[in-house]
Amino acid sequence: MNDPDAMADGEHKKKMARVFSGAELCENFMGNMGLLNSILARFIKRTECQIAEIPVLAEKGDWESSVREAHTIKGSARSLSALDLGDTAMRWEEDCRQRDAAAVRARHSDVVEAFALFKAAAEGFLSRQGEDKKE
Description:
Layout: H1 4-19, H2 22-28, H3 33-60, H4 63-79, H5 83-97, H6 101-134
Helix pairs in contact: 3-4, 3-6, 4-5, 5-6
């Protein structure tokens, strides 16, 4: 028989792995937590600024810069095992390439939500890693 709770737990784990996979990131960086801490902190700070700036750039008609910033978020997120954020940023990048200011504004909340989920998961991962070292 299928256990509905186990199935729901499995689906939740799959969804969370797309938000952020600490295990995959650790493997990619060969467990170098000092480097991971530094990179994640810089990514979070920079991405917060980029997310705020892209709609401003689009409103100004600076499409080249808005495309570049969205592209940077996409690539960096995917490199840091944040697949949902990377996919959302990819759609935002396409909106910028299409020079569609209304779509850029509309997608902003999707990017903010994907980023917030990633940030919470990444900070939780880093916190757990710090706790493991203390024990």
